[in-house]
Amino acid sequence: xxxxxxxxxxxxxxxxxxxxxxxxxxxxxxxxxxxxxxxxxxxxxxxxxxxxxxxxxxxxxxxxxxxxxxxxxxxxxxxxxxxxxxxxxxxxxxxxxxxxxxxxxxx
Length: 107
Prior knowledge:
Layout: H1 8-11, H2 13-25, H3 29-34, E1 42-43, E2 54-55, E3 69-73, E4 80-86, E5 89-96
């Protein structure tokens, strides 16, 4: 049986709380709820030192998302947070020019 990827909220609770708050402020109430249940499928993998982006769903890198895709730019105090959303599902969390994410220590 394949194990599901970890929830982003379990790894980076402060990030998810910030995303939920920012989404509410933008009037994105549904996404503010959904962000609590996204999973960390993979890191971006680009290798840029300013990027900490997270893939939250399977998708071929470099390929367009296609119909139903929209970008949701948020207004954090530092750096950039931008979500790629397809048909109401958060596919990617772009995290740029921000302090290093602090991962919750797992018991």
